[in-house]
Design the sequence.
């Protein structure tokens, strides 16, 4: 944190941690790694298998860096805590985060404080969370999830819940109904529900 690390510094860091079996935390928030630094971190994530916590907050990471970084996050097996706070999100960045949240099974805590207040961006991230039937996420900071999942078809009452309550509901929903939820709500091309046929 606050080490004035630039892209060049990340290059040295990546070389130093490549293949580490003991590194569990990587806290490089409040630096200047930008897209190139995020790309370099993405390249090393698969080779630092015991990494459980990453903080890349306030690093000026934009769409290209976020896309590459979150693609790597999607495939991590032990990463449980991630902070992206303070990196401004655009629709492309939101799509990358949503992709990672839809496929990652280890992430328990995600910090998106000071990233975006635009509802279309946050809704896309919420859709990624909701779509993951094996989601581990229990702690989400940065925006209220409830009102966004209501726009995705959840009951109105959920709009007033805390993030913790919404995430607990999602876990219960997926445990109880599994993939049957998606099949139940699908419509045929003629617009009729499956049950009506």
Sequence:
């Amino acid at each position: 944190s606050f080490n004035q690390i630039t892209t060049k510094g990340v290059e040295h860091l990546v070389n130093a941690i490549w293949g580490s079996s003991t590194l569990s935390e990587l806290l490089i928030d409040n630096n200047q790694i930008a897209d190139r630094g995020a790309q370099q971190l993405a390249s090393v994530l698969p080779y630092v298998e015991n990494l459980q916590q990453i903080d890349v907050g306030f690093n000026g990471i934009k769409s290209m860096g976020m896309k590459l970084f979150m693609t790597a996050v999607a495939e991590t097996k032990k990463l449980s805590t991630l902070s992206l706070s303070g990196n401004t999100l655009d629709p492309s960045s939101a799509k990358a985060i949503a992709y990672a949240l839809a496929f990652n099974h280890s992430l328990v805590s995600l910090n998106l404080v000071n990233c975006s207040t635009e509802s279309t961006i946050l809704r896309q991230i919420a859709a990624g969370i909701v779509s993951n039937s094996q989601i581990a996420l229990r702690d989400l900071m940065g925006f209220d999830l409830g009102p966004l999942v209501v726009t995705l078809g959840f009951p109105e009452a959920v709009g007033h819940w805390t993030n913790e309550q919404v995430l607990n509901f999602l876990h219960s929903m997926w445990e109880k109904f599994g993939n049957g939820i998606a099949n139940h709500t699908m419509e045929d091309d003629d617009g009729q529900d499956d049950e009506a046929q």
